[in-house]
Amino acid sequence: MSKAETNSEIGERIVVTGMAGAGKSTLSRLLATKTGLPLIHLDLHIWNPGWIRVPQDELVEKQRVLLADDRWIVDSNDVDRDLLIQHADTLIVLTPPWWLCSWRAFRRGIRRPANSQLPDGCDESFSQRIQDEWGIVWRNWRNRHVVRARDLALAAHCQSLMQVHVLESKRETVNFAEHI
Fold it and tell me: What is the pTM of this model?
């Protein structure tokens, strides 16, 4: 696993993952702008209308189709591990502290514009957004050790298969992005 300050290149099939609120979408948008790679927000594909979660087998099939292209950045913490290993050439794992992720997620819910991109057929009110973000705060706290351990285990497993970058702070993430 390499440190942010030594990175200067990344591949063309990039997965950005981490806890909710870690900064996946922000970094992914920045990388897409800098590299010209198409950006796939996987969260837009995991919900059916009415906020009904896509069944796991259907989600894996959707991912298989989305990852069939030669160039992309995927922003998600729900990428199928086998598909990631099969298709990605770069894994970026964001691991800021759980409490910072929770704060960012909650703040995002309050500040998100009404016209922000949502899955087809999934509308939300301001009060629903706040409730959803409080749910993320709770899940982040409850899973604070599990998610970090899972993400670091994935990074360790992928280290010999692709480029792996573990970014633990905003400073490391900014340094990484500046060197792309």
Answer: 0.84
Range of the domain at 73: 4-178
Residues 167, 178: Cα–Cα separation, whole Å: 13
**Predicted pLDDT at 123:** 65
Sequence-separated (6 or more) residues with CB below 8 Å from residue 74: 14, 15, 16, 28, 40, 42, 66, 67, 88
Question: What parts of the chain have a pLDDT lower than 70?
Answer: 1-8, 109-119, 121-133
Number of domains, the chain? 1
Which SS3 state, helix, strand or coil, does residue 24 take?
A: helix
Is residue 20 within 8 A of residue 108, CB to CB? The reply is no
Residue 33: per-residue pLDDT:
95
d(CA 41, CA 121): 16
